[in-house]
Amino acid sequence: MNNTIEQLVAFLRQHNNINDKTQLAKFAVDRFQLTQDRSVYYCQHFAVRFSSSAYQNFGNTVLSLSNLQKFDNRPFIVCLVTPLGNYTYLANSTLLKKISHSSQELRENNIRGSFNGSDIARIFEGIKNTPENFEQLFNIHLGLGFDGNLTRLVEATNNISPSGKKFEANKTQLAQILHAPARAIKFVASQDAQTLKNELDAKVNKFKNEILLAALIENVNVRGRIIEYLIAGEDDLLRQGIIDALQKGTNDIPQFKTENSLGDYAREFDEFFTETDIKTKIMILNSNPKAYNLDKMLEFLSAERSVFMFYFIGVEPGKAIKTILVSIFQTQLLNATILLKHWAGRNSRGVSQFEGKTISKLILSPEPATINEKESTDFLRTLLTL
């Protein structure tokens, strides 16, 4: 996160006793050269909304969801001005519990309603929503984005029963799940793992120029889907259409839909059935990439011979593409796994992310393929109890 956020927080603390949101907004505009969009003040690095209340707990309407959508790709900060001081909260869509005001018609294709101060989570997955945690919280948000939060907000706001379902393992499936780390250890030590890496590396090398062009796309979801399709897509005609659009530098990229499956690349070997999820990491960004849906992962690992891998593609302007193939249970990766249990809503164990900085370190300096079987099994037991 840009240090401009730290400067903003320090500025707001400096004016802690101002108790005048209008005056504070004027000072902020002058200090940070902010542009005003109705009640929101913004620059390249952040957007801020000033509210006032007699108390720290406030129920005032903050902003419409449609207006938040415009600024959700940067830290969106709410500054609450009170007689006791200024309080700041991160209020990107990931930090919203629901939409409260005029939200009866909120749907995924009909973004309506506004959120109140009471809708902003003060604690998110055990992390306090305070300035010292803004960077960590925003990196989590970047991995989800507005679109990733919209379904959850619609369900929470309208009290809709979620369509997902927890995976409940029977005795045989449970044994296979708990044996997954042992299978992974055997796979990564085999020639099959090197074969899989070589196949994926060959695809990256074949489309390296297009991958570098796709890496320039700002929308993280579009960028990831395009690179994943270049490597693992099955429709050669569609792939060629994507390549042509990238090479011409146009925005006219063919519309395509990717399956919402666990992995992108399936490969069967004599002793193993592997699924590999392809992830692109822009090395100059610290956002947390999505990892996996916890229920889908448990269901996959409940199958005999199943092995799940991640193939990370590190892209940095002006430098060669770097790749790494690692098990879901690789020690550094496992320790960098963030479980978002509450975020996913009811009737689901949740989803996960990886700490972006750890992924960058792994790509730049690949660690040995170490897997601690006991720690990995304990991790799976934790998932099963959620």
What's the arrangement of secondary structure elements?
Blueprint: H1 4-14, H2 21-32, E1 35-37, E2 40-42, E3 47-52, E4 61-64, H3 65-71, E5 76-82, E6 85-90, E7 114-116, E8 123-124, E9 127-128, H4 134-142, H5 145-158, H6 171-178, H7 180-188, H8 191-206, H9 208-214, H10 220-232, H11 236-248, E10 265-268, E11 273-282, E12 290-293, H12 294-301, E13 306-315, E14 322-327, H13 331-335, E15 337-340, E16 351-354, H14 356-364, H15 373-385
Parallel strand pairs: 3-5, 11-13
Antiparallel strand pairs: 1-2, 2-3, 4-7, 5-6, 8-9, 10-11, 12-16, 13-14, 15-16
Helix pairs in contact: 7-15
Radius of gyration: 23 Å
As laid out across the biggest beta sheet, the strand order is: 1-2-3-5-6
Silhouette: globular
The end-to-end span amounts to 31 Å
Number of DSSP-assigned strands: 16
Helix content percent band: 25-40%
Number of helices: 15
The total number of structural domains is 2
Strand content: 15-25%
Main sheet summary:
5 strands, mixed
* Low-confidence region ranges: none
Write up what this structure looks like:
It contains 15 helices and 16 strands. The protein has 386 residues and is an alpha+beta fold. The chain has two domains: 4-158, no CATH class; 171-385. Helix 7 (180-188) packs antiparallel against helix 15. The longest helix is centred in the middle third of the chain and has 16 residues, at 191-206.
Please supply descriptive tags for the structure shown above.
5-stranded mixed beta sheet; 4-stranded mixed beta sheet
